[in-house]
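Narrative of activities, Objective 1.

The group set out to show that a structural description can be obtained from nothing but a protein's sequence at a throughput compatible with the screening campaign. Below is one input-output pair from the validation batch, recorded exactly as produced.
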Amino acid sequence: MEPMTIIVLLAFIGTLLVASAVALHEFRERDLQHWWGAYLSPNEISGRIGTPVSSDEPVHVFIAVCDHYEPEYGRPSKDVSIQRVDHWVKDYPQRFNGYHDSDGRPPQHTYFFPQDEYAPEYLDRLAEVCAAGYGDVEVHLHHDADTPESLRDKLESFKETLHERHGLLRRDPVSGEIVYGFIHGNWALCNSRLDGRWCGVDQELTVLMETGCYADFTMPSAPSETQTATMNSIYYAKDLPGRRKSHDTGIRAAVGQEIPSDHLLMIQGPLLFDWNSRKLGLIPRIENGDIHYGQPATWQRMQAWLKAGVHVAGRPNWKFVKLFTHGCKDGNLETMLGPKMQAFHGDLARHAAADSRFRYHYVTAWEMAQLVHQAEANASAPCHTGSTAQSAVS
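Output recorded for this entry:
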């Protein structure tokens, strides 16, 4: 073999080894081992990316923005935190009342408010914008080293405060119990971190159900070790004795299937690779539905969210797009309330005007859960109503 040929071959091998090392590093950094297999070969629970839909009926797209709404993010002064909330209450209606979905409804925003940051000044203000028809409030919780008993006390007390003091949440029309949607802080639902931090309760799903949780909206959490093997799915999970992360798998929601009474509804957002954005030009970045500074909502991202195909089995024409953000974080606040988000809503309207089959619906977390149940019941067309506690309390 010629010396030059050997040099070229060695250079190629060296490049390949470096690329492999970088890829392995990224694989570990993103904790891909928790969901890589489901991405390549979806199981009976995980949604199949690109699931075909019928071409002779409309595609209904339900969009819910689930905000980990933390006014005290970064530990600013109380005045700064209140200014952040005031910014939302004032600007959200002004910026978005000119945009409407296929039902003529303005964009909706669900504020998952952290129990650990509660102050009446925040919730009184948020209740105003919700009552005006622009969203809803649900429960968010950061906790660590809890027990089932201490967790139960926190959830029961907080939901009572939200409902009785602020007129938020709603009562189940049958049981009369105050019910709520949930997002776990630090993604550590069901004690899913390997080090056991930021939760402490292996049997968390049971506590959530027994305190009135109607659905969990925590996932996806990638890149994180807390990410479930189940992805791009709507499914039901129950606590498994002696195990953490019981929501790693479960029973997929399906048309005509009886809802298991001892399982909690899990509504996931999109999770896939973004091949249009690559680190070092080679490694695709993760698309997980997070709207933040430098990564606004766009029509291009919407194509990825739709491709993820989160739906109730048997009803692929109803697509559930659960997005998330940390809307009170500096930078994110401007992204969520600024011209880029306005442009996104404008693009949705233009696309719907050009394609009569594309029908998009702004919904709250509560409404999204109700639409899941409508799909399970094989409803002929989606129907959602006002989401505020004032209109939903029996």
